[in-house]
What does this fold into?
Amino acid sequence: MDADKEGLLLTQATSWVARYQEAARALREEASEPAVHGYRIAARRLLALLALWRPLTYHPELERRLLRSVGRLSALRDAQVYAERFGKPPASTGNTHKSACRVPLLSRRLARWLAAVAQVPDARALASLYQQHLALRLDEAQSALDEPIPCVGKSASSRQQQLRRWHRLRLEIKQARYGVELLLDLGSGDPGWLSTLTHWQERLGQLQDWRQWRRRLRAEQGGTRKQTKLRQQLKEKITARLCQLDCRQAELVALKLAMLAGHNMNDMPSQVVSYSEQNVSSAKSSGG
It folds into this structure.
């Protein structure tokens, strides 16, 4: 492996591992909203790093431990976001500010992983392979949006299934964003990819927040007229956002093509972007 490239890869790996362990220690001390959020980000970035090196050194149990740890914090994170938005925790949850959370430091496993990384003789192809991996994962999640939904008898159930598919795409986009950050640190990729992923993560994040808040409001006992009105407003926002997202899917198509080909987003055919803009304009004019 080129000496400079080798040094950059190893430095990056060591740095991201250290960031994860720092975030884990902070969460062990206090499960505040910033600590929970910071840990989940650090864990997902570490998962992106493990995925980058997966073709050459694969540690499945390490990845499973991280995924389980992030998953166990989902309910607490949702409750903290709800409390920040409405000024109180949802009725269905307990304390949103625990004294501490037990999350794994993974010191020994990560030390073994770093030792294995240091022994890799040639990792020059890692960045390009990982770039294609991210694009294909995005393609799989986006393609699922167009799969037929089984007839379930109620339009509300079909809508929920579609929302779950968008949620899955959000998770893939979030992970792809961390992956592109990693690539940019290595001097690969394109900043335009990160910008596109960030915008999509924000749009889908808002959609998920509205969905969660509406669900929490529905679970509240003795809902007031104000809560009923808010639920209806959230439903209208969700409907409008789904229409907007559907019309802008061409942006993700352009992103995937750029990542697969290793092109700058500005080099992609302008027709792809203009198609998206035309559909958004149509949606706005029709009230979407």
Remarks:
- Residues 270-288 have pLDDT under 50 and may be disordered.
